[in-house]
Each structure stands twice: as structure tokens, then as C-alpha cells.
Design goal:
There is one protein chain. 40% of the residues lie in helices and 18% in strands. The chain has 319 residues and is of the alpha/beta class. The protein has two domains: 198 residues, Rossmann fold; 103 residues, UDP-galactose 4-epimerase, domain 1 (Alpha-Beta Complex). Helix 1 links the parallel strand 1 and strand 2. It binds nicotinamide-adenine-dinucleotide (NAD).
Length: 319
């Protein structure tokens, strides 16, 4: 069988691809607009890895790629334009994050691909969401990124209910881990660990008491692999709440490992404001544990320790 990962050389996609190669016997297609060779250095020459450079927003291109494969069992649809680009390039955000999801779901229907797993986000909720947040809280995003996630979920539910494509959306909190890049709202949490691990100064662009819900990339990847071929996924949307950690707490965990770590604060007022309103959005959901057995194994302290060790020992994770 074949598994496709769109955005397969991105941060999450590349971790997932490596785990799929290591723990399954399937062929893995990495479908990505920009191929990040460094992230997949350890698997790119594996004969079970097929790398395709392509754009999910281009229907003709996507369709012609699917025609080449007749045994795709699962698509992990992780290809996405990310913030802050989604907020400044609205047409591009619509094309990639909404049209792109439609193209993938429609190909799944046309080519009888049984399962699509989608990476959603807490960004589907707006600042006025009623607390505590659950899977059934009203989706009212205030960002184009969140709008793309809601539209994709609604499309996925339609294909799930009416078109025979099993669709599962996992709404992640901030995922952090070695080698994550970008300018997203939560990247500060990654940078506080990544740069000192590389022997460089970290600049934290939020105030030190800002907290965000985190999960470690390694805790999400084994769980995601387990969803492939999962016979019994009762719902089609799941929230992962994450552990709330403040910037200064992360910094103190880093200093336990690297006592002379340089971490400077240069807060961006707008970002700090947005994250302060976000920090009200505490979740309260056990569905992902009850239905799918998801439970993270790393404490924040253990995560920081492991993250630093990975960056120090593995060139794939240096940025
Ligand atoms: N990292 C997080 O904290 C987080 C949290 C919640 C949800 N997510 C979601 O997880 C998914 C992956 O995120 P990530 O952190 O790995 O981001 P990333 O930016 O590292 O990966 C996204 C990938 O999508 C690819 N891509 C962009 N436009 C494309 C197009 N037109 N066609 C094909 N591929 C395209 C990019 O080249 C990149 O490799 C995204 O959907 C993101 O919204 C991430």
C-alpha cells in the first residue's frame, strides 16, 4: 500500500514520513510545493520514499499525480500556507488552504482512497469562544488561517458523511520540536529551545509570562501513524489540548540543560496581545483519549531535554 503526505517535507510532515518509513512497510509519497531536502536527508534515498514536487491548489496537477498511483490507502493532508503569510496573502491562503483541501478530498473520492487525515488547529476558535473549549464549541475564527481550517473541516465532514471518504481532523495546539522554522504565533516557544541548543542566542518576541498550549512533536507522530488504517474512529474531529507552559518556564528548563543559555526578551506588543487573549482558551476534552487512546508521554521538562539532545546530535535538526 501507499501513503501520501502532503506538505511531506515540512516540519510535521517530515517527522511523520520518517516514522512511517521506520514503523510500517508502506511506500510513502511526499507531496510538497517546496522540497526541504535537509529535513528528509535520512530517508530521501530509501526506495520506499517517492518525492513529488507539486502544488495542492492546482487541480490539474493534483489529479494527474493521483492517476499514477492506484494503491493509496491514506492521505495525510498537511500541506498548508502558514501564518503570518495567510493573513497578508489572502488569495494564496484561499487557494492553498481551502481549494487545496477540496482538491485532495475530491481526488480521494474519484480514486477510491479510503482515508484522509487532516491537520487542523485551535485557530478555528475565536477570542469569543465559550469556555471550556471542546470539540463542539462554536468555530468562529478571526484569522484567514483559522477560516481555512474551518472550511477544510466542513468539506471533510461532507466527504465523510456523503462521499465515502473517511475523514479525521486533528486540531493541534502548538507543536514544537527540533528544526521547526517559520514565523507563526507560537514559534517563540520553539526558538527558546532551538537556538541555545545550537549555541546561539534566542530572542523571545513575547513577554515572559505568555503561556501557550504545547505538545512535543514526538508525542504526536506515533499517534498520527496509528490513525492510518485505524478501523474505528468514532468522530471526525478531535482536539488535542496540550500543556500550558509560560515562556519563562521553558527558558528555565533550557537553563537546567544549558546554564549559560542566552535568552533575550524583545516583546512584540501585537503578538503579546493576541496570545494573551488566546491564553484564555483552555480546553476540556477527553475524546481523543477515550476514543483513540492519545496520551502524551513527555513532560515539558523532558521535552526540552530531548529536544536539545536531538539538535546537538543530528544535523537534520539544525536551522
Ligand atoms: N506546527 C504547529 O504548531 C501546527 C499547529 C496546528 C496545526 N498545524 C498544521 O499542521 C500542518 C503542517 O504544519 P507544519 O508546522 O509542518 O508547517 P510547515 O510550514 O513546516 O509545513 C507545511 C508544508 O506545506 C507545504 N506547502 C505549502 N504550500 C503548498 C502547496 N501549495 N502545495 C503543497 N504543499 C504546500 C510547505 O512547503 C511545507 O513543507 C499545517 O496544516 C498546519 O496548519 C501545525
Amino acid at each position: 500500500m501507499v501513503i501520501m503526505v502532503t506538505g511531506g517535507t515540512g516540519f510535521i510532515g517530515s517527522f511523520l514520513a520518517k516514522e512511517l518509513i521506520n514503523s510500517t512497510s508502506e511506500e510513502v509519497i511526499l507531496y510538497d510545493f517546496i522540497i526541504n531536502e535537509k529535513r528528509i536527508a535520512s530517508i530521501k534515498d530509501n526506495p520506499r520514499v517517492i518525492i513529488i514536487k507539486g502544488d495542492v491548489s492546482n487541480w490539474a496537477e493534483v489529479n494527474s499525480q493521483f492517476e499514477k498511483f492506484d494503491e493509496i490507502a491514506t492521505i495525510y493532508h498537511f500541506g498548508s500556507l502558514m501564518p503570518p503569510l495567510t493573513e497578508s496573502e489572502l488569495t494564496n491562503a484561499f487557494n492553498v488552504n481551502i481549494q487545496g483541501t477540496f482538491n485532495i478530498l475530491e481526488c480521494a473520492r474519484l480514486f477510491n482512497i479510503p482515508q484522509v487525515i487532516y491537520s487542523s488547529s485551535g485557530a478555528i476558535y475565536g477570542p469569543e469562544v465559550e469556555l471550556p473549549v471542546t470539540e463542539h464549541s462554536y468555530r468562529d475564527p478571526w484569522t484567514m488561517y483559522g477560516v481555512g481550517k474551518v472550511c477544510s473541516e466542513v468539506l471533510g465532514s461532507f466527504y465523510h458523511r456523503r462521499k465515502g471518504v473517511k475523514f479525521t481532523s486533528i486540531r493541534f495546539p502548538a507543536l514544537i520540536g527540533p528544526g521547526r522554522t517559520g514565523k507563526g504565533m507560537t514559534i517563540f516557544a520553539n526558538n527558546i529551545i532551538q537556538y541555545p541548543a545550537q549555541g546561539e542566542k534566542a530572542i523571545c518576541n513575547v513577554e515572559e509570562d505568555i503561556a501557550v498550549p504545547l505538545i512535543y512533536i514526538k508525542d504526536s507522530i506515533k499517534f498520527l501513524v496509528g490513525l492510518h488504517n485505524h478501523e474505528d474512529i468514532p468522530e471526525h474531529t478531535y482536539n488535542i489540548d496540550g500543556v500550558w507552559v509560560e515562556a519563562k518556564e521553558l527558558a528555565s528548563f533550557v537553563r537546567q540543560e544549558i546554564p549559560d543559555a542566552l535568552i533575550e526578551y524583545d516583546p512584540d506588543d501585537e503578538l503579546t496581545f493576541m496570545l494573551r487573549s488566546w491564553s484564555m482558551m483552555k480546553g476540556e476534552s477527553n475524546a481523543i483519549l477515550d476514543d483513540l487512546g492519545y496520551t502524551p508521554s513527555y513532560t515539558p521538562e523532558e521535552m526540552v531535554k530531548d529536544f536539545i539532545a536531538e539538535v546537538r546530535t543530528n544535523d537534520e535538526y539544525k536551522i
